Amino acid sequence: MAATLSKAQKFLIQNAMIRAATDATPAPGGNLIVVGERLNVEADPFRLPPELAPKELDLDFLLKLGAFPPGPSRKRLRGLGLRWDAAINLLLPDRSGRWEDARADEVAMAIMDPLRRRFRAVVLLGQRVTRAFQLPAEPLTWHGSFAVFPHPSGRSSTLRDPEYLKRVKSFAEEIHARAAP
Predict the structure, then answer these.
(1) What does the buried/exposed string (b/e) look like for 143-165 if buried means 16 or more CB atoms within 10 Å of the residue's CB?
(2) pLDDT, tens only, 147-165
(3) So what's the pLDDT on residue 49?
(4) What string of H, E and C letters represents the secondary structure of the chain?
(5) pLDDT score of 1 more than 50
């Protein structure tokens, strides 16, 4: 279920997007990045002004915008042993909450090489994100520097299986070991 935002919260998110699109300071970096789907809020579509729209395909914009603020998804990922230096979502939030395959594919293809160059480990959360990068969506696998990790939605029954949970936590340790300088 998507969260409902107040007008003030919507305004803050919209302003954060515009600041991220126009800010000339370097984006956050590090060794490990997590890539999610989209901020799960029930709000009017957040659209950048037309002159800034191409920024949606820019890794620096997505890094400055960030992802996984304090909340259930962040808590689940941390509970699975995953820590990160940076986090992004492929899609901007909108009221529908629908996954847009074509748009996700476009963003993923635009940022794939920059991700590979900037981070030692890129954690793709769930099948939809992994497919957007045109990679096999088998959980707990590596594709070069890209790791496929379960989505933190809480809907997956496999994350309630104690044996699978051990494998996930072990994979998180492997991710951290690969990301270490």
Answers:
(1) eebbbbbbbbeeeeeebeeeebb
(2) 999 988 767 778 889 999 9
(3) 61
(4) CCEECCHHHHHHHHHHHHHHHHCCCCCCCCCEEEEEEECCEECCCCCCCHHHHHHHHCHHHHHHHCCCCCCHHHHHHHHCCCCCCEEEEEECCCCCCCCCHHHHHHHHHHHHHHHHHHCCEEEEEHHHHHHHCCCCCCCCEEECCEEEECCCCCCCHHHHCHHHHHHHHHHHHHHHHHHCC
(5) no
